[in-house]
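Subject: Predicted fold for Chitobiosyldiphosphodolichol beta-mannosyltransferase, 464 residues

User T.R. writes:
Posting the sequence so we have a shared reference for the thread.
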Amino acid sequence: MAASYVAMLALSIYFPLLLLIAWKRWRRGRSPRHVVVVVLGDVGRSPRMQYHSLALARRGFSVTLLGFCNSKPHHEFLQNDRIRIVPLTELQRFAVGPSILQYGIKVVFQAVHLLWKLMCREPATYIFLQNPPGLPAIAVCWFVGCLCGSKLVIDWHNYGYSIMGLVHGPNHYIVLLAKWYEKLCGRLSHLNLCVTNEMREDLAENWGIKAVTVYDKPASFFKETPLDLQHWLFMKLGHTYSAFRASSEPLDPATERSAFTEQDAGSGMVTRLHGRPALLVSSTSWTEDEDFSILLAALEKFEQLILNGESFPSLVCVITGKGPLKEHYSRLIDQKHFQHIQVCTPWLEAEDYPLLLGSADLGVCLHKSSSGLDLPMKVVDMFGCCLPVCAVNFRCLHELVKHEENGLVFKDSEELAAQLQMLFSKFPDPSGKLNQFRKNLQESEQLCWDENWKQTVLPLLVDT
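User M.O. replies:
I've generated the structure tokens; pasting them so everyone works from the same file.
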């Protein structure tokens, strides 16, 4: 008798589940051109997943992107009628109970919430998932894929456990648990993409995961900014940030002048100001893997050279982005008493960021990969704008930055200060080293993201 009750209970549980699976798979068969893209992070700060979505949409797929909507994506992404953003709810941090309990509650909430959002969507042919963060997203997406017949594609940007290790230490039990989970669940996907050859080799050798390298490439809107558009941007930013404002007023009140450019009142022609400052740009998420004290120390050394009578331009240093360590570094910046260097830390609109990169004289990257296996997307964008870069060196940076060819690599503030001294020694003389790097970038053939995606990712989707 008891056995019959157990059988009836099992049937009552599994029969609706089987019906759900059959219904979902039937619906997927009726909509074979749908893809779900999952980002357990800010959509606006996940350019690679935005580019995946755009590439899929341009090839006839309807795309549903699930993620946090904390900042605005690029307008090209927002205006595509084949892409729909479904916001996920981000559980705010709360200081109740031990940290392991707080983390556990967050993971359970995200798992249930993501499962609900995925099951309420039209079944997809593919589920594209950004990793990190992969906990709990990999397991949830795999489970939904099993129910709906969707193929899981994991795009490995880095390792989640290594990023957690920056905060907790590499041997913390949460970090070790995250590593075990990532290694186990990462093998459940149908297709794995990654950002460097060294990551591909590491996944194969240490994780048993076969991946395909898909290098980051700039979107088509990352390009050199025309001078008239530079002037418009500088005037716009000057309303908020004093570093972009002219240090002196023009003789003609109708003439518009920024710190870098001037527009003639009669002809409307824009020219660069004689004796203008050099514009240095760095972008960041203000996290533990970027040590901005290196840049500040190098700027101090550079300023001392000017105070000693050396012939160098003054600098405007723009550090864009937002993140947990921004207030910490803002306090350090406020403690500096620069006379020839201005530092500002704006958060730019998505459309203004490419324009700023295309207007700058030099880019600086302080990204040190937590795993040593990923590459900074910010440098890819800078190269798209033909902007020379000084980048702090780490294990696989050579796959992107070619020292003395498209930029320079450094290991500490001493080397960075020496590079600033060399690059700005003849500024803005076209014969200087800075302009030679820019010419090298202009002459190099650079595929944009969409063409690169067409050549690398699209054939893989056909094969799966």
